[in-house]
Amino acid sequence: MTTPPRLMTRAEAAAYCGYKPSAFSAHVAAGKLPKPLVGLHRWDRKVLDAFLDKASGIDPPEGEDAFTQWEREYRAGKEGEK
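Structure (tokenized):
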């Protein structure tokens, strides 16, 4: 599997999120998914990922990247097992 492009068309972004283009557009219009970049009419893959992470409740604390958050939570879980 290849990495999707950083900037995606509506059809590419919809497929990336697992939607048909019409459903993807409806979710964008409802504010459930981010709008395209102004003037480019393209969606940034990283913005989609961050938006979906936040909606899923896995948004890392400010200043902490996703790996650092995972590592902190993993270590906390290991400490709880002792």
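Strands lie at 7-8, 43-44. Residues 66-81 form the longest helix (16 residues).
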